[in-house]
Design brief:
The chain is mostly beta strands. It has one domain: Glycoside hydrolase, family 7, domain (1,4-Beta-D-Glucan Cellobiohydrolase I, Chain A), CATH 2.70.100.10. Helices cover 11% and strands 32% of the residues. The strands form 9 sheets. Strands 3, 4, 10, 11, 16, 28, 29, 30 and 32 form a 9-stranded mixed β-sheet that branches.
Length: 457
Amino acid sequence: MYKSLALASLSLFGAVSAQQVGTQQTETHPKMSWKTCTGKGGTSCTTKSASITLDSNWRWAHLTSGYTNCYTDNAWNTTSCKDGAACAKNCAIDGADYSGTYGITAGSDALTLKFVTKGSYSTNIGSRTYLMESDSKYQMFNLIGKEFTFDVDVSKLPCGLNGALYFVEMAADGGMGKGNNKAGAKYGTGYCDAQCPHDIKWINGEANSAGWVPSSNDKNAGSGTWGACCPEMDIWEGNSISTAYTPHPCSGNGLVRCEGTDCGDGDNRYGGICDKDGCDFNSYRMGVKDFYGPGMTLDTNKKMTVVTQFVGSGSSLSEIKRFYVQGGKVFKNSESAISGITGNSISDAWCEQQKTVFGDTSSYKAKGGLNAMAASLARGHVLVMSLWDDHAVNMLWLDSTYPTDKDASTPGVGRGTCATSSGKPEDVEANSPNAQVIYSNIRFGPIGSTFDEAAAK
């Protein structure tokens, strides 16, 4: 996942976030149920009542004493934020109007994330949400020896957009009590991922204001000196053209606040503590160009079920397998059609073949591969459901030719049918404001418990 350093965010009196708790907007988490399963074939599942919360990077924040912004557009309030600790103490984060401001709606077992939402005082772009166990704790998952299944509708996601459902090794309480963090998971704090993003405004209870540089192409975002690293398991990154699933191991445990070399910044991409490239399985990239897309074997004009199995036990992981269900039929993941790479699932051996044939740097192996990923998953991960556009490389790494200076026929370069000129945020936001993704019917349990694998084609 090549996440942008400038996540699209809310412009409500300036895009802001903070660590104290404000009282201007009541925080009411939208309800969303999911299921735990036992037995075989998805016939024995129990519904769990739950909710979702919005990431703190999207929220409005202000001085604890009133309405004055702590962050406006893409710059910090230098009076209240003379340093990171003072900023976190002086600024209060507030509740969210989920549907009116952010275009987020949940009901029964479904979550809908709209791309552009125009409110009375704001225009919001994209969102990032987390599944909650309680009002103040994220739901934690240990995926080893289990399968995670959900339905997704990407029919309204064009080139350049990414409806991403994934897991990261965040703290269950969102880092509550670290530094000046009084908001915690209830208000969506504590995010990290394997890209070690620098656009996170609050890390470990301090503002990421030191060295903050406003983005040159995103009026709501910027980047600070610190990054927020942690292992990441991308279950699903996709739009109507392409999809991929990708483990990203890291050498650290949980959220690590990084700087410079440890973040893998700039030309040091492979020298940081996380594997930013990961080991991805994208059917189109693996030479199967008629498996996933509009009208194809998996028809992205229609809702589909995505099943991911984590084969292993304890803190050991040997394979990550993928199945799909659509129209009452179960489909195995496509087999690689690239010479020198065999198989249809992610294992260390498969990843080594892929990196060798594609000529990619094997940061994945250097960071420990599935062993490191398993150790992280065993410690527990938080479920993230998001929708975003890419201010760094226009999502070309997912759905187009990337790198763009290479021939698309070169193994590993073609990732989808989108033009290399597609995906520019200004174009996508203007031309596809009604884009959306719907996640629904989440099921979790031992391998074989959430669907009928015996029916696989």
